[in-house]
Amino acid sequence: TGEPVPTISWYFNGAPVDVTNTTKYTISSMSLNTTTINNTIRIMSVGSCDAGTYTCNATNVISSDTSSGVLTVNVAPNISTPMEGEEFNITEGTEGSIRCTATGHPVPTVV
């Protein structure tokens, strides 16, 4: 809230959000009354690169105020070393290993 109604700016990890990139972001703004504005940033097709701190900065001729929040992006597990079609030959009585590397957020458990 503020008088006059503040201008809203968005930041991602301290850098201004490129609001002209409408394939990535859309900003909606609605005046609720003469002193209050509701401003929303929408991220299209959220990916792990979108994880970080988003900051809303409200400014008018009197002053400014900021509020920040952290976006965590959950990512489905992905096995980055597939074993389909692989053969593992280990001689009896020797040591051997088979690797399975998986990525994701939160970090997946390989069992």
Task: Summarize the entry for a quick read.
The protein has 111 residues and is mainly beta.
Computed CA radius of gyration, to the nearest angstrom: 24 Å
Largest sheet, if any?
4 strands, antiparallel
**Helix percent band:** under 10%
Strand order of the largest sheet: 2-1-5-6
- Strand pairing plus helix content: what structural class? mainly beta
What gross morphology would you assign? rod-shaped
Multimeric status of the protein: single chain
- Gap between N and C termini: 52 Å
Strand content range: 35-45%
Q: What order do the SSEs take from the amino end to the carboxyl end, as H and E? A: EEEEEEEE
Uncertain segments: none
The number of distinct β-strands equals 8
Give the integer mean of the pLDDT values: 89
DSSP helical segment count:
0
Structure description:
With 111 residues, the chain is mainly β. Helix content is 0%, strand content 42%. It has a 4-stranded antiparallel sheet with strand order 2-1-5-6, with no helix packed on it. The protein is rod-shaped. The mean pLDDT is 89.
